[in-house]
Amino acid sequence: MLRYAPLAMLALAACAPAAQPPQGPKPAAYFALGTEPGWTLEITPEQLNYNGDYGETKIAVANPGARPSFNGERYVTDRLTVDVTHAPCSDGMSDRRYRDTVTVTAGGKTVKGCGGDVLPPGELAGTSWTFVSIGGAPVAGDRATSLQFDGARLSGSAGCNRFSGSYRIEGSTLTAGPLMATKMACPGAGMMQESAFFALMRGPVSLGFPSDGTLEITAADGQKAVLKRVI
Asked: Residues 6 or more apart from 15 whose CB is under 8 A from it?
């Protein structure tokens, strides 16, 4: 019996399914948008999906692949042509800026807009934000939050009391305070997330601007608050 064991093992190996190559992360879609008339564009590895004229025009075509163009890429199909130019762009309805300027021609009509990564604001003064998370915990949905930068002062609420104070920025480091706050007691998560934010802001913090347009405020110990822009 022993002399047949290798043959049996070979037979089993032949029947086993072939090993599948590891699947890497799916490439992120590219988004662009424009105003007057409102339009959006999504570019995935498989398709170009265009919604124009405030949603009245819808075109979905196979992605033909990007052709190199001057400082960017070009996608050409029978129904849709897209030019992506790597030059900063404002969406025209706010002061939000994007990495790319995008031109779309669909059905003989050409529109212009912005796409790609959201760029950091030119300065924090004059911007408003709401909290997404503090110390790794999502903020409570039933408690309104805000953070405004006005000149040399900041103000807002982390879910309970109103606070305000001075701030200064040197490079990517922000130093605030001392922060003054009202003395209202709040039940539940509101007080906890406020305490976490005040603890985070006791010393200098670093500012980061991920490509999704959020603001990250990070303390020396790694504790972080994540905020999204109010436009």
From this structure: none
Residue 193, pLDDT > 70, answer yes
Amino acid letter, 60: A
φ and ψ of 194, to 5 deg: -65, -45
Instruction: Indicate the CATH number of 128-181+188-230 among 2.40.128.270, 2.40.50.140, 3.40.50.300, 2.40.440.10.
Output: 2.40.128.270
- List phi, psi (to 5°) of 61: -135, 160
CA end-to-end distance (rounded Å), the chain: 78
Task: Convert the pLDDT of each residue in 85-135 to its tens digit.
Answer: 999 998 776 778 999 999 999 988 999 999 999 999 989 999 999 999 999
Strands (E), 28-124: 30-34, 39-43, 47-52, 57-62, 67-69, 72-76, 80-85, 89-90, 97-106, 109-119
Q: Where are the domains of the chain?
A: 30-119, 128-181+188-230
pTM to 2 decimals? 0.76
**Encoding tokens for residue 37?**
């008339």
State the DSSP string of 204-223: -EEEE--TTS-EEEE-TTS-
Q: Which two tokens stand for residue 17?
A: 């399914």
Buried-exposed string 31-44: b where 16+ CB fall within 10 A, e elsewhere: ebbbeeeebbbbbe
The predicted pLDDT at position 20 comes to 52
SS3 state at 83: strand
Checking if the pLDDT of 162 tops 90, the result is yes
Cα 212 from Cα 84, distance rounded (Å): 18
